[in-house]
Q: What sequence folds into this?
């Protein structure tokens, strides 16, 4: 009898323990307290990130998100120092120009398309080649290369927005004859011409060195076969501002443009807020005209994010990045940060951002910026080469540029 009672008691105790364990595990699984750390440098938009974090944490019981804002000037060095000490944040912004250093740290987790877009309904991305396979960074938002022009100067000289490269050349010639500097450039601290925005547009929409007819071409082949400069080389040499008159740095170029020193300057949609704040004259923008060879668009990544490799809350980190890429978050990002979202099918409210976004959305292909994603050593090489070409110091520019591209390809092949 005692044995039977004991057996029954054991069964009841086991059942109670099982039920208690199920209840405990259920609560613990849903309410396990954990903290996700998030680093970025954009103190001016801290409210946006706080709202994003609050909304995501509110949908995941037990999750707390701590945001750390680190000054941009010291951001990369502080991140690398923390990474070396094994204290990497769970989610972090990555400066596009420093991507190589972040990847070389060995602290970035691989992210797959399914990690970022786990649901059945997959959003269509602006740059479709991204995130199809594993990557170490998520491109969340960006900008587009533009040519800004002074509307008052254009109207005074009865000019229309160019629709072809020939129109652009004619506009520059007319402005030059009217004693107006057609195209402004900026100098780097090293005294080199900063022409990346212009060069990106030329590479995307440039003319082949050989007449191959108006057929669509693969962009990677265009990079190998097409310098993109031949139709504008003479123009650049003739109308680029002399170095003595160049604005020192891109911000100074914007100020000089606002003071009507130039009729046009190269830039990106990221420059729009600054010009709208400081420019008294009317201005607008156009995309560097192409000849309809590829119908290509160019998108520059400005916001990139990564997750810590082997992080304690890696699943939450991937979920948070996924939330950033949702249509709702991307829409809010475009409205609050004034950047071009990565997801198609949205309606940005800011007029100029919407114009640029709609233009890109209408392209057959949209490519990443060529120059912004180059390693630092190759970027410096490009600066030196562009400086020589655009300053008119090269006697055989096409041959020179072909050799330059061949050198870049050789360097890539050795890696």
A:
């Amino acid at each position: 009898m005692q044995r039977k009672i004991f057996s029954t008691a054991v069964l009841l105790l086991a059942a109670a323990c099982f039920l208690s364990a199920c209840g405990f595990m259920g609560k613990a699984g849903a309410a396990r307290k954990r903290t996700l750390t998030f680093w970025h440098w954009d103190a001016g938009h801290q409210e946006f990130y706080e709202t994003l974090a609050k909304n995501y944490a509110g949908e995941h019981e037990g999750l707390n998100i701590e945001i750390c804002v680190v000054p941009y000037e010291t951001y990369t060095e502080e991140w690398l120092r923390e990474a070396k000490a094994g204290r990497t944040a769970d989610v972090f912004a990555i400066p596009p120009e420093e991507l190589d250093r972040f990847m070389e740290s060995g602290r970035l987790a691989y992210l797959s398309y399914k990690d970022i877009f786990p649901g059945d309904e997959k959003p269509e991305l602006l740059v479709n080649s991204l995130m199809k396979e594993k990557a170490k960074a998520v491109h969340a938002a960006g900008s587009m290369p533009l040519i800004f022009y002074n509307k008052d100067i254009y109207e005074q000289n009865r000019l229309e927005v160019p629709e072809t490269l020939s129109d652009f050349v004619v506009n520059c010639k007319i402005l030059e004859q009217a004693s107006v500097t057609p195209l402004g450039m900026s100098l780097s601290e090293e005294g080199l011409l900063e022409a990346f925005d212009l060069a990106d547009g030329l590479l995307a929409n440039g003319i082949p060195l050989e007449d191959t007819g108006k057929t669509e071409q693969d962009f990677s082949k265009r990079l190998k076969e097409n310098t993109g400069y031949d139709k504008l080389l003479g123009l650049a040499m003739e109308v680029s501002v002399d170095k003595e008159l160049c604005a020192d740095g891109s911000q100074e170029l914007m100020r000089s443009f606002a003071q009507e020193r130039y009729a046009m300057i190269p830039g990106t949609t990221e420059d729009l807020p600054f010009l709208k704040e400081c420019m008294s004259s009317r201005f607008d923008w156009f995309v560097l005209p192409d000849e309809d060879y590829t119908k290509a668009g160019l998108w520059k990544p400005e916001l990139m994010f990564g997750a810590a490799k082997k992080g304690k809350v890696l699943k939450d980190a991937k979920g948070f990045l996924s939330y950033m890429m949702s249509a709702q978050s991307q829409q809010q990002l475009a409205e609050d940060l004034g950047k071009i979202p990565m997801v198609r099918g949205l309606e940005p409210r800011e007029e100029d951002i919407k114009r640029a976004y709609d233009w890109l959305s209408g392209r057959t292909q949209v490519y990443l910026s060529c120059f912004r994603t180059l390693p630092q050593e190759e970027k410096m090489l490009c600066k030196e080469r562009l400086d020589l070409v655009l300053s008119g110091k090269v006697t055989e520019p096409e041959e020179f540029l072909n050799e330059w591209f061949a050198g870049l390809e050789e360097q890539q092949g050795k890696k």
Q: What stands out?
A: The chain has two domains: 33-142+300-368, 145-286+374-414. The chain has a mean pLDDT of 81. The chain is about 45% helix and 15% strand. Residues 145-286+374-414 form a domain with the D-Maltodextrin-Binding Protein; domain 2 fold (CATH 3.40.190.10).
